[in-house]
Amino acid sequence: TLPRVYVTRQIPPEGLKILRESGQVQFELWDSDDPVPRQELLQRVKGVDGLLCVLTEKIDAELLDAAGPNLKVLSTMSVGFDHLSLEELKKRGIRIGYTPEVLTDAVAELTVAVLLATSRRLIEATDEAKTGGWGTWRTLWLCGYELANSTVGILGLGRIGVAIAERLAPFKVKKFIYTDMEPRPELASAINAEYVSLDELAKQSDFLAVCCALTPETKEICNKELFSKMKNTSIFINTSRGGVVNQEDLYEALSTGQIAGAGLDVTVPEPLPTNHPLFTLKNCVILPHIASASYTTRNAMSALAANNLLRGLRGEPMIKELKL
Ligand code: GLV
Ligand code: GLV
Q1: Does Transit peptide appear among the keywords (predicted)?
Q2: pTM confidence score
Q3: Which residues are marked as active site?
Q4: What is the ipTM of this complex?
Q5: Cα separation values, 163 from 204, 214, 283, Å
């Protein structure tokens, strides 16, 4: 009999087509655009051999116990893996597929978009235009900050950070700097970026873009201490995970003018409640976690997640496997 697989969401068509046409799995789908309720999920995973999930599902001991010992392959349709209890997966010998690289272009593109929306105050500006604030042309009205001649800092230099820098360079950025657990000379040389301490990154950056994974080491790494070292003309951008930021400290930094603005594609929690204080700030642009949301990329992620799953179930190397 074919391996049984549970797919926790209506994933984009390319991945579903691959699963269907493979003839290699018997799969059940939570056929909805909304997350599967936890209790339902715990029921549905009983006895499965493989699981294809998205980032809204917590894959922890409770879930893995509910699935039972048949579960050998987990495939997440995401580059992030902070929703997975890696230790629990490792303990059970479950292999993990994920979707790096296919989303790099889309995420870098959106990061540039939210950066410019924040630095040039685009959301505020369209609101003013629509709601009668556009009285006349004024000399310093809605002024923002330029990328030209700026220093751009990247916190966590991976493929995405490099792709962001490549896109920003034509805006005449003067200098790229980055920090990470250790220097990454091969990646850095492609964008001529200098390795600095977190301290120096905060002090020197006119634009600080966070591109690291959320791990115990990076949890709330962007906090009061970091914001207090930044210039009051600096723009903070986060398209990685909300958990890397202490949001109370960010609110404080934005509302007191400690930093000039923030553009966030990710928050804690998601969705951010509509009455959250950050939504009251004109200098904070908040997007609902859409960095990889292009049709091309979401389909590529879906296809990669499906192929990782099938290969894993066949006992072959996955296309993109997270090695623990
Ligand atoms: C999106 O946030 C992802 O991890 O793919
Ligand atoms: C993921 O971590 C990436 O940088 O592509």
Answers
A1: no
A2: 0.96
A3: 289
A4: 0.73
A5: 21, 19, 25
Closest CA to 55 of 314, 250, 291: 291
DSSP H stretches of helix in the chain: 13-22, 38-44, 61-67, 86-91, 104-119, 122-130, 159-168, 185-191, 198-204, 224-229, 247-255, 295-313
Contact partners, residue 132, CB within 8 Å, separation at least 6 = none
Give the count of alpha carbons within 13 A of 45, CB side only: 31
Q: HSE, CB side, 13 Å, CA atoms: give it for residue 136.
A: 2
Of ligand 2's listed atoms, the one at least distance from the Cα of 211 is 4
Domains delineated in the chain: 4-102+295-322 (3.40.50.720), 104-286 (3.40.50.720)
Torsion of CA 226, 229, 232, 234, to 10 degrees: -60
From 82, 102, 104, mutation site for ligand 2 pocket: most ligand atoms within 8 A of C-beta = 104
Whether the pLDDT of residue 26 is over 90: the answer is yes
Tokens in use for 125? 């500006």
Distance 292 CA to ligand 1 centre (A): 7
- Average pLDDT (316-323) is 97
Task: Report d(CA 78, CA 288) in Å as an integer.
Answer: 16
Tokens of 185: 């000379």
Interval 139-167: pLDDT, tens:
999 999 999 999 999 999 999 999 999 99
